């Protein structure tokens, strides 16, 4: 039996990073980590500072995005990640970001960006 899918869009103000079908999404929000499957009840959630979004695509591949700020919008048929800034996990230099985590003040914008990037890379690494 094939898994049910939903349409997923990951966008930021300057680009559309991802558009495709997914079977599962995990997002870190200000109210906790949320898992989304097809036909999820409609909702809107604020993405957590320093968080990431992990996607299981319809073909079974997993991909992740470091996201800083924004919202997760869920309808019965689709999910949209509206991020202030987003980056593919595969484009992240994990060693450099870990160095930033060690030197930046905890809770600073620089620290949260690095934390988001490390989380995304580790989620699929």
TrEMBL record:
Transport listed as a keyword: yes
Keyword Ion transport part of the UniProt annotation: yes
Subcellular locations according to the entry: Cell membrane
Residues making up the signal peptide according to the UniProt record: none
Summary of the function given for this chain in its UniProt record: Produces ATP from ADP in the presence of a proton gradient across the membrane.
Family: Belongs to the ATPase epsilon chain family.
Subunit (UniProt): F-type ATPases have 2 components, CF(1) - the catalytic core - and CF(0) - the membrane proton channel. CF(1) has five subunits: alpha(3), beta(3), gamma(1), delta(1), epsilon(1). CF(0) has three main subunits: a, b and c.
Protein name: ATP synthase epsilon chain
Source organism of this protein record: Gordonia sihwensis NBRC 108236
Classification lineage: Bacteria, Bacillati, Actinomycetota, Actinomycetes, Mycobacteriales
């Amino acid at each position: 039996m094939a898994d049910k899918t939903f349409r997923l869009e990951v966008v930021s103000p300057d680009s559309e990073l991802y558009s495709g079908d997914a079977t599962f999404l995990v997002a870190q929000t200000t109210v906790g980590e949320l898992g989304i499957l097809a036909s999820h009840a409609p909702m809107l959630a604020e993405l957590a500072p320093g968080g990431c979004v992990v996607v299981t695509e319809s073909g079974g591949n997993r991909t992740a995005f470091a996201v800083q700020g924004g919202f997760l919008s869920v309808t019965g048929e689709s999910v949209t990640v509206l991020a202030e800034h987003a980056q593919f996990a595969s484009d992240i230099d994990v060693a450099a970001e870990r160095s930033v985590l060690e030197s930046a003040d905890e809770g600073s914008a620089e620290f949260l960006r690095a934390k988001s990037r490390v989380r995304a890379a580790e989620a699929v690494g």
